[in-house]
Automatic annotation (TrEMBL):
The name this protein goes by in its record: Branched-chain amino acid transporter AzlC
Similarity remark: Belongs to the AzlC family.
Organism: Pelistega ratti
Annotated Gene Ontology cellular component terms: plasma membrane
Cell compartments where the protein resides: Cell membrane
PANTHER family in alphabetical order: INNER MEMBRANE PROTEIN YGAZ
Sequence intervals crossing the membrane: 16-36, 48-68, 74-95, 133-160, 166-183, 190-206, 212-230
Topology in the lipid bilayer: Multi-pass membrane protein
Top-rank taxon: Bacteria
Gene Ontology terms: biological process: L-valine transmembrane transport
Keyword Membrane: yes
């Protein structure tokens, strides 16, 4: 396969088709967010700046509502921490992935969201593509989609001829597809079953409003305590896949 000597351009060409499904969800949600902010009476500049600086979809929708209530920075901080606390566990999982990426690491950390975690963690990077540029390209493309969607919603959303109610389910559906694809690829479903089991258990114990952080902590704790066993399973899967490719 021929490629240029420009690693950033090579990475963009490899990752753009890979991010197209996410682009659809990001643009729709971004437009919905821009329209929502506009409906609350905010100038278009507010959703654009918030999308560019906060870059956390759930938090941005929450903050939009908090901006029209009494000033309460401590409560806002706690809510944002609880909603985005899962990023702490994502970051631990990405320590190895983001190692040896040089100056790109800062941007990779700043643009780590659910979707960039999913795509970069599961990515099979072609051997001729620089790993750091590949992951950064994914993250920056997703960031661009979100800010663009918010800007379009804020500036032109009220002109759309259709109802965007319920569009937030697009990203949920996308994650279901990603999970299904990963399940099909797995030889052993140990990690997937672990995630499902811990999630259901925490949902039953803590309820739907408080189960997320206990779930993430529980999965992280089990993976830490039984790290060697899970690494052995993954090693066997990779070895089997390699042997299959050779055949």
């Amino acid at each position: 396969m021929s490629y240029t000597r420009k690693p950033a351009l090579d990475a963009f060409r490899a990752t753009f088709p890979y991010t197209i499904p996410m682009m659809t969800g990001f643009l729709f949600l971004g437009v919905a967010y821009g329209i929502y902010m506009k409906s609350l009476g905010f100038n278009a500049l507010y959703p654009i700046l918030m999308a560019a600086t906060i870059y956390a979809g759930s938090v941005e929708f929450i903050v939009a509502g908090l901006l029209i209530t009494d000033f309460d920075p401590w409560n806002t901080f706690l809510i944002a921490l609880m909603v985005s606390g899962r990023q702490f566990f994502y970051s631990i999982s990405m320590l190895t992935k983001y190692s040896k990426t040089g100056k790109k690491k800062g941007l990779l950390i700043a643009t780590l969201v659910d979707e960039s975690f999913s795509l970069n963690y599961l990515a099979k990077i072609p051997p001729h593509i620089d790993r750091g540029w590949y992951m950064l390209s994914v993250s920056l493309l997703l960031y661009t989609y979100w800010v663009t969607g918010a800007a379009l919603g804020a500036l032109f959303g009220t002109m759309l001829p259709f109802d965007l109610k319920g569009v937030e389910f697009a990203m949920t559906a996308l994650f279901i597809v990603i999970f299904a694809e990963q399940w099909i690829k797995e030889k052993s479903h140990a990690s997937s079953l672990l995630g499902i089991g811990v999630t259901v258990t925490c949902l039953l114990i803590f309820g739907k409003n408080h189960f997320l952080l206990p779930t993430l902590f529980g999965i992280w704790l089990i993976l830490t305590l039984f790290r060697s066993q899970f690494e052995a399973i993954l090693s066997r899967e990779c070895h089997t896949e390699t042997q299959g490719d050779k055949v």
